[in-house]
Queue: 2 jobs
Job 1
Amino acid sequence: MTLFNHSRRRFLTQSGLGFAGLTALPSLAKAMEGMGMHNQHTGDMMMPKITPNKASPNFHPDVELELFCKPAAIQILDGSRTNLLQYTAKLIKGEKNTLTDLPNSYLGSIIRLQKGQKVRIHLHNGLSQPTVTHWHGLHVPQVMDGHPMYFIEPNETLVYEFEVLNRASFNLYHPHQHGATAKQVYFGLAGGIIINDEEEAALELPAGEYEIPLVIQDKQFDSDNQLVYAPMMHSKMTGFTGDKILVNGRPNFHLDVASRAYRLRVLNASTSRIYKLAWNDGMPVTVIGVDGGLLEKPEVKSYVMLAPGERLDVWADFSGRNEGTELTLKSLAFAGVLPKMGMGMHKGGIPVGSEYPICTIRVTKKVSDSPKLPAQLSKFHHYEISDTVNPTNPLPIGISEAPMSMLLNGRPYEFNNPLPSERVKVGSIQLIEIFHAHGAGGMKMDDGMKRGGMGMMGGGMGMMDLSMAHPIHLHGQQFQIVSRSFSGDSTAYDTVRDGFIDSGLKDVVLVMPMERVKIIKPFQDFKGLFMYHCHNLEHEDMGMMREFSVE
Ligand code: C2O
Ligand code: CU
Ligand code: CU
């Protein structure tokens, strides 16, 4: 194990900007320079370079596949192809349906696994920059979790071997390269993982052509159809947003369906955009599952919030609808997730919290038969606060916001340097409280100035409230949401509050300004370093990430 210093120079030479198309865009190159791992907090951090894990002769996989990360050029818009980065997979061993490609998409293949299977994945880095892949949602040992310390250089291969311990659920895989997660995801590196198990199979939910992944992202294109990713000071702080909504990698996504029930597996793989999903004709949104799999009972909502990294399992019943009926899945208007100055400063694009369509669905076939929605979907153990080792003393996840430093527990990301409250016993069940650390009103201008960087904001804004919503993600086992409490003026909060699904197993929770969320999380089976961070990926890369050391 060798140690080196993550200097900016290293980032620039090793990242190589990924592919040729990018170097033609000087503003992008400049923006990416600013996005790197070099900032006042993480720039001098020591991160080990670990020899990539190799296949173990004692591990006998049921499923084995190769996963390549490499540059690609895909036709997305009319005219030039778009240069991006792509996961492609090749099955070595396993059932034929292990891998399914989304049609005409840059997104990685959907990987289908069964609970209990042993899986080996050979990750090949065909990029010109370092990367590492994380299996978001999967409960795996530290060395298989895609912690940034396991990054591989171009042309290196990293072998993952793990058993699928999770229950049936829809998860995702994406890079977790230190300081470059947002950029690598934005340029195309993301894919879905569907886990099945017997409990779920017994329900005979819509499957095959009736089970449809909907991966939602937003991107910005230049006049030559190339991706623009230029998070400047302000958009780093709020998160970078695009001016086109893509579903499964396609603009103006459209689905033809029969008049029956479908199962929509929805994933928000945007770097920062939050959606408020609803059907345009007032049909309620019937949710049967979230991040960690099926709910016990369906929840019927007029709208549902979906933050980056979150998943939704939606029962969409088009029974009785006539041929030719069209429906739109929309994002409805909402407020309160961005700093008060956020909306006004947004240039162009589709403002977060405005109303816009996500995709359209047309009934093209009338059928008479449809499966029925089960009243009971699953069963799982519900933790009580009294099951935790710290019922009166929750582990804190304190969010603090300043223009150049998005922090957790007052600290930026530091490799292997846990606070006392970040050391937990393996096997323990912990009560955790996520809150805004700077009081109900967020941070004021003068605090921000002391922390640095405020001078770059341009003057004349006076006092401002930087507090915003953060989708907080914890690696490892899923958690249960115990309570949310909100204090303050609820005008904005009222536009989102009915859209949270807190009854299921979660690994991302959207925490609104002035909100405190209590969760219970088990830390079973594996010792080691497990990240927790904001899944607004620009925030993550700015250092809004910490680790639990499970000991
Ligand atoms: Cu989806 Cu640590 O991330
Ligand atoms: Cu994760
Ligand atoms: Cu955040």
Job 2
Amino acid sequence: MTLPTAQPYPFTFPPERTALVIIDMQRDFIEPGGFGEALGNDVAPLAALVPHVRRLLDGCRAAGLTIIHTREAHEPDLSDCPPAKRLRGASDLRIGDTGPMGRILVKGEPGNAIVDALTPLPDEIVIDKPGKGAFYATPLSKILADRGITHLLFAGVTTEVCVQTTMREANDRGFECLLVEDATESYFPAFKQATLEMVRAQGAIVGWTAAVDEVVGALAFQRSP
Ligand code: C5J
């Protein structure tokens, strides 16, 4: 299957060897009172993203793609959160502190859950990750290898932090990667735009980009041409 208007040039992927990776669509980043707001951000643009990711998720589910959700999540004793990560921030609330949605970025807390509209189905994979990238200190590499996955479609938040970090990790591991432009968001519009441009620069040095409609349309056409 080919997406002819992907940038910087058409992107070809085999659906049976492709996974959709949805990064960190958690209440902690998307709803008021979580980690995103504790870092000093307005979370409204990320909340507006949810229906776009849902449209992409529905299309990929219908086409039978492997679906992977990630959560940025730490152990309750914070043994997997180095001080270099815990102690930085733009407000008094730090990872592990108690906020309006429970302990910030801690596994099992209400704020750490994926937003209701994107709740993983029982057969979908959920990766808890202590870092920004989804490959660091997680079983993701093995899961993808076991399923014969070669191509990855990326969505989620935030574009320039966990999404870009994971896409770069994947690119270095030999995956063909595409970032879905309107299924990712940042607290900083300029950072999102810069990320889209830098990943596809220099002949797709990190990967490709394309719109939700293009991905979903191509997958639907494959099912009923
Ligand atoms: C951040 C993320 N921005 N999921 N995490 O700290 O991008």
